[in-house]
Amino acid sequence: MDSRIQAFVDLAKTTFGLGNYYLHHHSLWRDVNHFSETSYTLCLEWFPNGTESDEDGSNPEGTASIEYNVNTGKLKNAIFVMGETYAQDGITFNGGTEEVIKWIEQKTGLTYNEQFQLHNETENEIEFRAIIDGIPVSPAGYIEVKWNDNRELTFFSVHGEFPTCDQVIRETYNLSLEKAKHVAKEQVRRLEFPSFEQKKVFFVYGVEEIYIKNKDQITKPFEMLQDGGTSKKVNHILHWDEPISGAFERKEIDWQEEITADEAFSCSPSPTTRPITEEDEKKCVKAVEGLLRQEYPEDSGIWCVTTLHRDKKFLVATLGTDQHETRVFKRKLSVFLDPHTMDVVNYIDNQFMVEMYDSFEAPGDVTVTQDEAYEKLKGLFELHPFYVYDDDEKQYILCGKLDCHHGVNAETGEVVLLDNLE
Known about the structure:
globular; 7 helices; 22 strands; 422 residues; single chain; alpha+beta; 13-stranded mixed beta sheet
């Protein structure tokens, strides 16, 4: 075993009291965050003495999975399977919340009330979230800790981003709902919501959440930020005249990367951080078009390649259509390509989700206008401060997140909680 890995093995055994365990397996894997920064993780799987993998390959109860960031030396995760621990002289919390916080600070290098803050607490679990000056951030960061009735650690996880002072443009928050009302009205949209309980689709006016910049009140779309590597917007509609005969032969998608200790400890940039060139885009679009000519020969002009992004060993093309634009679940196609040959390896179609609507009762007539819906909702809007990472500034900027948990039934005019539409 590499001596650098052995040092982490020894650290984990001592820290977590794993004298009753043996190291079953270890592996290295890498991550690329939203900022295109590569980090490497060492995962150590410890089995309780006298146990082996179950017949189905699952880990035995009490298995300890310990993960470290090898570049910072900081703990990332410590999970005991099924919440069962056989540790001796491991981690216990007898001093309450304050002791848990100090332990987190020691293991992560983060500072309480500067970078993370208490979010939720129960008898056997505590959750924290990333903050700047008490204000939540996006992309978000979370810390979760659990213990058993003996106050012994059974679960620890730190995930996401925890910004430092030099990554933040500080401002005085001065947004209000009154200042944002011109934006609020524009964000009221009519959508089709499926009720799985009633097996019916409803037309509902809801609010599309959005960020408003504190500095100049310019809007910034709310995006589910995606880790994994370089991405590029394409927006290319695919047209063809002739189909291609023969079915496409799918290959298995293997996400496992072979990573050496030298790569990990030198923090080599991941291949997924390489830029996507114009030539990459052309080859990818051509390959995706070939796939559609085989698998969707009648769909010329329907599909649009919206984005390309690198994810581990693949270049992934995301496709959408302009059909069912008002539905919560929109048609989507993900195509996985080998980035070296630009051959299509496999694809995933969410058609099965869209088809769920087909058996549902269709929505009734719309009797409420957008203006009427806004009048019903305007007293229920929420605007909360958020520090949001800005790709142009390369820093976190202060925004207000505009949202509303209610909607208006477009058929009856009834104001409803969106979470109750099941």
